[in-house]
Amino acid sequence: MREITLSQAVNEAIAEEMRRDPTVFLMGEDVAEAGTPFKVLAGLVEEFGTDRVIDTPISEPGFMGMAVGAAMTGARPIVDLMFGDFIFLIMDQLCNQAAKTHYMSGGKLTVPLVLRTNLGATRRSAAQHSQSLQALVAHIPGLKVAMPSSAYEAKGLMKTAIRDNNPVVIFEDKLMYQDKAPVPEEEYLIPFGVANVKREGRDITLIGTSSMVQVAEKAAEILAREGISAEVIDPRTIVPLDEKTLIESVKKTSRAIVIDEGHQSYGVTAEIASRLNEKAFYHLDAPVLRMGAMDVPVPFSPALEDLTVPTPEAVAEKARMLCAGEMIHAAE
Amino acid sequence: MAKAKTNTEDYLQMYRQMVRIRTFEDTANQLYLSAKMPGLTHMYSGEEAVAVGICEALRDSDHITSTHRGHGHCVAKGAEFKQMFCELLGKAEGYCRGKGGSMHIADQSHGNLGANAIVGGSMGIATGSALRAKLQGRDDVTVCFFGDGATAQGLMYEVMNMAALWKLPVIYACENNGYSEYTKTEEIAAGSITARAEAFGIEAHQVDGQDVLAVNALAAKLVARARKGEGPFFIELMTYRYHGHHVGDINREYYRSKAEEKDWRENRDPIIRFRAHLVAEGIASEEDLDALNAQIAADAAEAVAYAEAAAYPPAEEVDMHVFAA
User: Fold this and answer.
1) What is the interface pTM, i.e. ipTM, of the complex?
2) In the CATH scheme, what is the code of domain A3-182?
3) Of A62, A109, A141, the CB nearest to B108
4) Contact status of B104 with chain A (Cβ, < 8 Å)
């Protein structure tokens, strides 16, 4: 199978859906000729023109609000938010307007839009361009949240998101844009709420989101060399969450670590760990561990920044302790 | 009064709609005072000529966005009393199945994209609706209703900028009722309101919001021009709210005097003024208009009785409509 980058995968998904459905259009800062700073959207304006690939001023709440209005009146806008950190700027339009309109209208109005943005630290971009804010969005009923872990997922999830009749937020890891993965030439979609078991194992389940799937896979390789068999699962969407696959895995392995690049406290890892505790408690041989980013603003210095995110070695170390029964009381 | 719609039926329609709004609000206020309505509501009484003058220049395929003080826009855009009262009382037959309430009534069958409880929160939605119409090649116009208080929100400046850049068919209708919640507008707004729009090259007008014909004449002209791609436009409508910020805001002399309220009610009321005009011009007799008022009062009473007797949504609807299928 051919291999393409995550960036190309996103580009293909959007182009295919724009060809398929004339109501799909793109708007955001420097999406047209510039194709975004990450060049993900390069070439789209040449094919679809400036009516459907719309460069906006640097007015995130403004164009987010306009996308909500366009979606309510029949369009399927894709909003490009240059950095995930800018979600704080659009919170009212995303969480008070887009997320609630369908419910508040008793199901009469729909807001089929896609907000594509990014997450991820270690790009040396400091505290306002490095956050992973998926937990904030996942907390709000009415928003779906997709977190692609490779080019394959990025394409299939994007196509599903564009066809969904709800607001969907897609977080791409900005460090993965050049990562290649096998992506079929022929069309495919990845349904929401269906986790992907990336690697089967029997001793411990490693649940990772976005680039943390790679971290989990690398940790699993380290553990395999030591005779520990780790199962790696990628939920692919955190809203909706494929609880069943996660619970079934934990029932088999009796141990789990949840890894996500958002801050650990009150985060995605906490939510998933809690569900496993509630629904698989009697199958557990150890507490479910959370591994998120440190609860600090992301520091600039590489010497400090690299300490804030989960690494394969750190995951492997925790997994070893869980499997050795050293964390029965989770006290450190 | 200025000239606008000219035939008798149009005049009577504007009168009827203004009286329907006033009657709806008086009835809603009674529901609140008699503790029959959950929560609070914000009365539109006094501002009827604004919503009616503008909405009578629109058609169903034109959109509006509304505010927390939105009953007037909803009625003016064509909504029915029954579904509105059901919504206010949280009943299943309400426009939003009781899930939105007073501050979120939406009636998309008549192009009302909904009231909005975030001040200024619908400005993006209105402008996006106009963008959609333009991208589709339709000549539909969107009117964004908001108050003077919303001019303090940054979103307004972002979307006016884009609307002007892209010549969108949107009309920003600023209902200046003199008060931003419990504070005089002059204390929260520096400079001129219309100059805010003019800074973006948007043609702005100020009009007497108590004169339905003046509002309608201006709206009709601007809507027609917006359909031809000459938008966006901005209108500041000078008006007044008779009640407090919401129905519970009873003791309000600390921010405005009873004498001021009395003056607006007695000397500038949009319904009294228009009624006098209709009679003076021989368009309708006092008896005709009394009969119309009585019919509307009866309609409201019937709708309220219906809503009071109507069923609440069943418990299984609580997690319905979080996501669309």
Assistant:
1) 0.95
2) 3.40.50.970
3) A109
4) yes
